[in-house]
Amino acid sequence: MTQANPLHGIPVNIPATLTLTVTHEQLVELAIANRDLQLERTTTGELIVMPPTGSETGNRNLDIEGQLWLWNRQTKLGKAFNSSTGFHLPNGADRSPDAAWVRQERWDALTLEQRKGFAPLCPDFVLELRSESDNMEPLRAKMREYMENKARLGWLIDRKNKKVEIYRQSQEVAVLDNPTTLSGEDVLPGFVLDLKEVWS
């Protein structure tokens, strides 16, 4: 018995004026079928396809993820996640922060099935790293969305202007000019992010 060759996908350009909407389940199917793409979904179901980052941004992001991973490996207080991880937020949106962390007891409360897919929760800590081509306003909107969905701490790192916006529950956004380190405060106890490589 012979099997026909599967059809190869072809790239599709989606005009900026066109909005595609998908359900959470459809997004999961798309993510499985397109593992090289980073996909997100807004609370209204709008599909967001994000291109790969440039090499410099990817390198800086890996440095940040590595620092978070090492701290978590040593403290064992929770689970750390990289930029390819999707979370199904309480408001229905599906988001992929550049780095994230969830307290161990919250992770343990998930079923094995929930852990395999887009975990149905908002991380306790989220980080977004602005790439050269990113507009700040959509990133700020994402940070506000994380806070509305009960993230406890968020960092929006703007490499272009060497600024960091710090988001905390029920507080005004704090803006730091060219900081060399960031403290994980009581959310990530003892974690200090070294920004020297990020700014270089």
Secondary structure: elements and pairs:
Blueprint: H1 24-33, E1 38-41, E2 47-50, H2 55-75, E3 78-81, E4 87-88, E5 94-95, E6 99-103, H3 104-108, H4 112-116, E7 125-130, H5 136-148, E8 153-158, E9 163-168, E10 174-177, E11 181-183, E12 192-194, H6 196-199
Parallel strand pairs: 7-8
Antiparallel strand pairs: 1-2, 3-6, 4-5, 6-7, 8-9, 9-10, 11-12
What features would you describe in this structure?
By secondary structure, the chain is an alpha+beta fold. It has one domain: tt1808, chain A. It contains six helices and twelve strands. The protein has helices at residues 24-33, 55-75, 104-108, 112-116, 136-148, 196-199; strands at residues 38-41, 47-50, 78-81, 87-88, 94-95, 99-103, 125-130, 153-158, 163-168, 174-177, 181-183, 192-194. Strands 3-6-7-8-9-10 form a six-stranded mixed sheet, with helices on both faces. Strands 1-2 form a two-stranded antiparallel ribbon. Strand 9 (163-168) and strand 10 (174-177) form a beta hairpin. The longest helix has 21 residues, at 55-75. The termini are far apart. Residues 1-6 have low confidence and may be disordered.
Based on the model shown, name its key terms:
200 residues, alpha+beta, tt1808, chain A, six-stranded mixed β-sheet, two-stranded antiparallel ribbon, 6 helices
Q: Helix count, per DSSP?
A: 6
Mean pLDDT value:
89
Q: What count of structural domains?
A: 1
Task: Indicate the CATH architecture.
Answer: Alpha-Beta Complex
Using only C-alpha atoms, the radius of gyration works out to 18 Å
Strand content: 15-25%
How do you describe this structure in short?
The protein has a single domain, classed as Alpha-Beta Complex (tt1808, chain A), CATH 3.90.1570.
